[in-house]
Amino acid sequence: MTASNPTPTAPAWIESPPPKGSFRSIFKWGDPRIFKHPSQGFFEIIKERLHLHTNHFNTPEQTGYAMVPDNIKPGLSRELIHQFSSISGAENIAVDTYSRLNYSSGKSMEDIFHLREGHVNEICDLVIHPRDKNEVAQILHLCHEKKIPIHVHGGGSSVTSGLQCPNGGITLVMGTHMNRMISFNETDQTITVEPGMAGPVYEGLLNNAPEKLGAQKRYTGGHFPQSFEYSSVGGWVVTLGSGQASSYYGDAADLVISQEYVTPKGTFKTHAYPSTATGPRVDDIMIGSEGCFGILVGVTFKVFEYSPNTTRTFAFMLPDFESAARAARQISQGRFGMPSILRISDPEETEVALKMYRLDRGLLARILNFKGMQAGNMCLCMGQTEGASAFSKQVCAQVKRICKHNGGMNLTGIPMKKWFHSRFMDPYMRDALNDYGILIDTLETAVTWDRFLDVYHNTRDFIKQHEHVICMTHASHFYAQGTNLYFIIIMPMTNIHEFKRFQTGIIQRIEQNGGSLSHHHGVGRLFAPFMEQHIGQVQMAVLQALKTHFDPNGILNPGALGL
After folding, report:
1. Secondary structure, 3-state, 292-346
2. Is 481 part of a structural domain of the chain?
3. Whether the predicted model's global pTM rises above the 0.90 cut
């Protein structure tokens, strides 16, 4: 293990790739060679707000450098393993403990707690890397016949305990082979791909469509979750994901045109019409089903002309969160078009951001003070417009008009450019903080405008009952009828049971005040216990009926969605 050189006020952050075969190599985020540590300004905030002395950061603990022991035997017979091997080839299956733990683990805080403590539990019995949809069908048929649970691994970025295998079984890894483009239709502006394709590969194909696809124009998929670099297109669909530009392009559900699934009842592919009136849409049933009804083997998406030179950025400081929310609502309901990116940060997130970038002093601080913006109240609103040049210009002008009308001070586009620079890097910081017993986790919810401030204030009040906690909140996915709230929680905590009690309390407070269980993280096993309470017995019975139809033996991702 190598570490950065500590200063009198900063820890020796770990800066070496995890050893192969270690627990750390499973839970570390992203590229094993890339690290991001809290800036000096953010580190000082953490110490101050969490009441931690510099000595707290002398020695990292539970770093996960232990090797995963290969001592957990698979729960499948040699004969069955041989049958699966005959379908996909011996080179595409794995029974060693490390592989099974790796593909049965996501990035939820619960996953990370267990891995840091060196626990091996709820793993699959066999990992298979299928080569095509025909192999998936054969594997599923055998699992159905033998009543073996079957799970799907896309990019491994689930934060809802969606990859755990409580009953063992099979995990299919789609990213190894099933990551190809199937077809591209420039006339219809659609692309069909296999579910294991990674976000950067997908977007790279579209951005470089003239060179790679023989297209006349360049395109974008418009979907950029924070996990973009390490999530799969199939994962976006089956978890009802949402990207940073969803306010303009839509959520994953809005981007899907057609899907192909393999189920125990057979294989089907939905039609690629832009719209139909042929009864309830099976497409809508399958999007967000998290592998409980079938296994996604192909998906057709809308694509959009790529116009990077027409983007316009903006940023405003508003006097308080109520003003920021009102401005965002007026923008969302304005009928002049939407920004592709729109974000409003609450006072605590705004204050932390200013301190992180050392903007809480100097000329900007004096100007903000002169304009009557008070620390602890003011809120940052920023974003970007895009599309045809005249459209992007007009939307940006309307956004600026509304922000000014609500008391906003124009900060130019500089804050947005800083955010762009690091927008996919923030998840790396969790590893550094966890090394010193500092938990950083997120919970998010969808909320209507009339419940927005109630959910925000009541949930935040509950979180702040904890003695020492940083709670930064923002909204970043907007609709005419509402938005989302994204709570980022930072606190000293190393006990998983204490964390789960606290987490459950937050979920309950969100739900009690009118928020949804999830806006874009999905359900997994984290929210499964709350599903019936949230959607009611009648709707839960509908989901169970679909489960029984598609999966009569209950082998598809058992336990997810509460099914």
Report:
1. CCCEEEEEEEECEECCHHHCEEEEEEECCHHHHHHHHHHHHCCCCCCCCEEEEEC
2. no
3. yes
- At residue 520 the predicted structure's pLDDT band, cuts being 50, 70 and 90, is very high
CB–CB of 480/332 below 8 Å? yes
Considering the domain architecture, whether residues 186 and 172 belong to the same structural domain is answered as no
| Percent of the chain's residues with pLDDT above 90 | 90
Say how far apart CA 501 and CA 539 lie, in whole Å. Answer: 27
* Cβ contact 554:547 at 8 Å: yes
For the record, the structure tokens of 439 come out as: 């938990």
Q: How far apart are CA 401 and CA 448, in angstroms?
A: 24
Domain that holds residue 135: 78-176
Strand order in the sheet with 93-94: 93-94, 126-128, 170-173, 150-153
Q: Which residues of 230-259 are buried (b: 16+ CB within 10 A; e: fewer)?
A: bbbbbbbbbbbbbbbbbbbbbbbeebbbbb
Work out the angle at residue 43's Cα, subtended by the Cα atoms of residues 40 and 45, and round it to the nearest 5 degrees. Answer: 115
Contact in structure between 318 and 379 (CB atoms under 8 Å) = yes
CA distances from 38 to 33, 35, 353 (A): 17, 10, 12
Q: Tokens 């079984």 map to which residue?
A: 169
- pLDDT at residue 365 in the model: 82
Q: How far apart are CA 88 and CA 111, in angstroms?
A: 29
Q: What is the mean predicted confidence (pLDDT) over 202-222?
A: 98
Q: Which of the listed residues 117, 148, 176 is the one where a domain comes to its end?
A: 176
pLDDT tens-digit map of 345-376: 999 999 998 887 777 777 888 888 888 888 89
pLDDT surpassing 80 at residue 196: yes
Helix, strand, or coil (residue 477): coil
Q: Does residue 145 lie in a domain region?
A: yes
| SS3 (DSSP) at 181 | strand
Could you tell me if 109 and 124 lie in one domain?
A: yes
Same domain, 158 and 187: no
Pair 301, 192 in one domain: yes
Q: Residue 535, CB half-sphere, CA atoms under 13 Å: how many? A: 17
Exposure class string for 283-296: b at 16+ Cβ within 10 A, else e: bebbbbbbbbbbbb
